[in-house]
Write a structure and sequence with these properties.
This protein is an alpha+beta fold. The chain contains four helices and 21 strands. Helix 2 runs antiparallel to helix 3.
């Protein structure tokens, strides 16, 4: 057997190694290209995005206006003395509820009582003198008819009757005057309300004011029930408010705290001018307040709905997206692809919005819109229903009003 020369074998090994390296490189390149092609094919396949959708509704929507208001009393009065006198008795306590006409303060009225008795006695004297004069006149008339006295004598008697009649009227007016002065010795409540701080005590000297300086305040009485709330509305709401008032009472709800119990009243006053500085109109509403839940000076939350948007297009508020130029909504087509629809926002309330630009009944994206582009394919996600609420088929929900 012929032996292979060792030098020839050594010359063939580099060629074999080069072929093996080249083959490995070609295999790696083929695997890399195949992987990229598979990724490209996968990228070209449309991906589906999970979203939550709802149907566009059409219904009447009351436009609720919210404002901050201040509770104000319908009536409040500072009671002062109209005569110089001394407080004889204080009949009330501070912070007491009083009825209309209830006695609050009594002054020392002894001098006025004496003047009344004197005036009454003078009127009684005038009545007696006038009665005597009239009887004398009747007798003189009989004598005059019988030609026993002259016309001059009769005229003198008639003049006496006329003079006494006028004097009695003067003295009757004087009696009324002292009775009025006596009435100033008692301070009574002009209306039902609640008293404030009492500025005097028994034995205090009180005096009326002089000129432009009023006297000291004895007590302030404030009406609590009913009570009013003053607030302002934007001037653009004035036409709707006026139209509602022409149709009937406009209800107003107030609450002392957000989310608290509400009291219901009605609009009673709209100011006669718009504040040109703020562009608002002042409004007042009146409320029954038997439990004194509203107190003068309080700040309250006011809510009213003077007008209604008929057949409004209603969508969930979170469905409205804001783009660089306008607002839009993603509408889901029959092929589960979304299209961007520009909309105009007309009104927003808690949880829903009224828009123009989308048809009633259309299926729109409520959640998941941040992952979408026009033409994206979507799949309805199963939305967890709130506790106590049954899960709706398909996972979608209607816009909440």
């Amino acid at each position: 057997m012929n032996a292979v020369p060792l030098s020839g074998t050594r010359r063939r090994w580099p060629w074999i190694a080069g072929v093996l390296v080249l083959g490995a490189a070609l295999a790696a390149w083929w695997w890399f290209v195949s992987s990229r092609n598979q990724e490209a094919k996968g990228a070209t396949r449309p991906a589906s995005t999970l979203v939550v959708t709802a149907r566009v509704e059409s219904r009447d929507v009351p436009v609720r206006l919210k404002a901050n208001g201040t509770v104000t009393a319908l009536q409040t009065v500072d009671l002062r003395a109209q005569v110089s006198s001394t407080i004889r008795e204080v009949h009330i306590r501070e912070g007491q509820n009083v009825a209309k006409g209830e006695l609050l303060f009594s002054f020392d009225s002894r001098a006025d009582d004496a003047n009344i008795r004197k005036a009454e006695a003078q009127v009684e004297k005038d009545k007696a003198d006038l009665a005597t004069a009239r009887r004398t006149l009747e007798r003189n008339l009989d004598l005059f008819k019988q030609k026993f006295i002259s016309q001059a004598a009769l005229d003198t008697v008639q003049n006496s009757v006329d003079t006494l009649s006028a004097q009695m009227r003067v003295d009757t007016a004087a009696l009324e005057s002292v009775r009025v002065t006596r009435a100033y010795d008692e301070i009574r409540a002009p209306f039902a309300g609640r008293t404030g701080t009492i500025g005097v005590r028994e034995g205090s000297l009180v005096q009326p004011g002089s000129g432009v300086t009023p006297g000291a305040v004895l007590v302030t009485v404030t009406q609590i029930d009913p009570i009013a709330v003053a607030f302002t509305l934007p001037e653009k709401e004035l036409p709707g408010l006026q139209a509602a008032l022409r149709a009937g009472p406009v209800p107003v709800a107030v609450s002392v705290q957000a989310g608290g119990d509400k009291l219901t009243g009605k609009v009673t006053f709209v100011d006669n001018a718009v504040d040109s500085t703020t562009g608002t109109i002042r409004v007042k509403a009146q409320f029954a307040n038997p439990g004194a839940r509203l107190w003068p000076g309080q700040y309250v939350n006011v809510e009213l709905a003077p007008r209604t948007l008929p057949n409004a297009t209603v969508v969930p508020a979170q469905a409205v997206q804001t783009g660089p130029d306008s607002r839009f909504i993603y509408v889901v087509g029959d092929d589960n692809k979304v299209a961007s629809k520009p909309v105009t926002l007309a009104y927003v309330d808690e949880g829903f919005a009224v828009v123009d630009g989308v048809a009633s009944g259309a299926r729109i994206v409520v959640e998941g819109a941040q992952n979408l582009r026009p033409g994206s394919t979507v799949t309805e996600a199963q939305r967890e229903a709130p506790k106590g609420e049954p899960r709706k088929p398909g996972g979608g929900k209607k816009g909440k009003a």
